[in-house]
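Ticket 4471: requesting a sanity check on a complex prediction with iron/sulfur cluster. Repro inputs:
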Amino acid sequence: MYIISKCFLGHNCKYNGGNNLDKNVVEFCESHSYALVCPEVTGGLTTPRFPSEQRREEDGSFRVYDTQGTDVTDNFVNGADTELEIIIREATRFGELIEGAVLKARSPSCGHEVIYDGTFSSTKVKGNGVFVERLIEAQHCNKEIFADNFRILSEDEL
Ligand code: SF4
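Returned structure tokens:
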């Protein structure tokens, strides 16, 4: 089973009310078992919504704010945790390993290794989106459900 950002398949869950339809991801899903996630909507945020970015503190903690200055950290964290609970439960129920994830690059939820820096100036920094950070933690805590060669890819790496 692969974890896929829902907006890749044309679901209008992106912050601006649109999607990130991606032909390569659609084709990939035609031949693989998958589970769709949108941690931001699952966390209770509306569509459309103001764009958000993660701000990292020097001590390693983080908060997520939208462009209006609203702290939406709880929505991001709760949505990520809920999605992971569902995926782990479903993988267990169907006896499937979680083989990998294809997640939207640079998203404050789904971004892997590179995200925006929280200044809304298109400045990129090293880091993971909130969902990806929780996914990596879940992989370490539930090794029996994740394939040994589990990996997280963006649409650019697929
Ligand atoms: S949270 Fe992830 S799945 Fe949802 S719109 Fe953003 S990038 Fe797509």
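Notes from triage: Residues 2-153 form one domain. Leaving this open until the requester confirms.
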